[in-house]
Amino acid sequence: MASRPEVTGFYEARTGSVQYVVADPARKVCVIIDPVLDYDEKSGATATIEADRILAFIAERGYRLDQILDTHPHADHFSAADYLSRKTGAPTAIGANVTKVQALWNGFYNRDLAADGSQWDRLYAGGDTFLVGDIPARVMFSPGHTMASITCVIGDAAFIHDTIFMPDTGTARADFPGGSAKLLWHSIQAILALPDATRLFTGHDYRQGGRKEAWESSVAEQKASNIHLSKYKTEAEFVAVREARDATLPMPKLILHALQVNTNAGRLPEPESNGTRYLKIPLDLFKTAWE
Length: 291
Description:
The chain has 291 residues and is α/β, with parallel strands linked by helices. It has a single domain (6-260), classed as Metallo-beta-lactamase, Chain A (4-Layer Sandwich), CATH 3.60.15.10. The chain is built from seven helices and 15 strands. It has helices spanning 49-61, 81-88, 98-109, 181-192, 219-225, 235-246, 255-262; strands at residues 6-12, 17-24, 29-33, 36-40, 45-47, 64-69, 78-79, 92-95, 122-124, 129-132, 135-141, 150-154, 157-161, 199-202, 216-218. The strands form three sheets. It has a six-stranded mixed beta sheet with strand order 1-2-3-6-8-9, with helices on one face. Strands 10-11-12-13-14-15 form a six-stranded mixed beta sheet. It is globular, with a radius of gyration of 18 Å.
C-alpha cells in the first residue's frame, strides 16, 4: 500500500526505549524517530552504538535520510539527533512547544540557553504536514507527558511515544514538570480517534511480566485491552488513577542528566578548558522517598 510505510524498530534495553526508521521503500527515503545516544550514568561514558546501528541499517537498505525527529525532549535517555545530523547532514525536528520546556528547564539549570527552538532545524506545530517519500505525514500535538509532546502519523502508522504503551502496560506518567494527566487524557482520545486499523508504535517497552519486548499495537487493540483505557472510560476516572499512580513513582534516574542535553537538541555540553565535558545537576530540585 502506498500509505503503508516500512517501520523498523530498534530496542535499546538499557532504558527500554524504542527507536524507529520509517521508510518509503519505493522511493528509498526514510526518517529516524527518537534515536538514543548511549550514556552510562555510573561512569559518565557516552557512545554512539545505537545510532551507528541505525546508520548501518539505513546504509544497507540504500535509503536517503530525510530528517531526524524527536517526539519530545526525553527525560530517560539522551537524544542522538545531534550526532546523527552531524554524520549525515539530515535536519533535526521536534514539536514547536519545546520552547516552553526550554524556558522551564532553563530556570531549573540557571542557564541562558536560547529558549526559541533554534537548536533544531524544524519545529512542528499540530496540523503540520510533510512527506516521507510519497507517504503523507502529519503532526498531532499530544501534550500531557510533556508540554512539547507530539504524535507523528505517517501513512497508516502513528508514533505515539510517551502517551500510550503496549496494552498490558497502560499509559505514560504525567507528573513531570509541565505535565498534566488531564491533557494526557485528551491527547490519548485524539489518538484513539484514528482509524481502528492504524498501527501504533510506542516509544518505550518494559517487558511486562518478563515477556519479550514489543512496540506495535493498533487503535482497536488499545481500545479493547489497554489496562488503563479499557477500564477507565471517563476523564475523571483516568485522571484520578493516573495521578494516584504517578504519586508513587520515583523520578527517572536520568531526568536531570537528560533534560539539559535534550532541550539543546541532543548536544552535549561544550568541553571545558581541560577538554572534558561536564553535566550540571541541580541539588534538591525534586523530592524523593528516602528509604
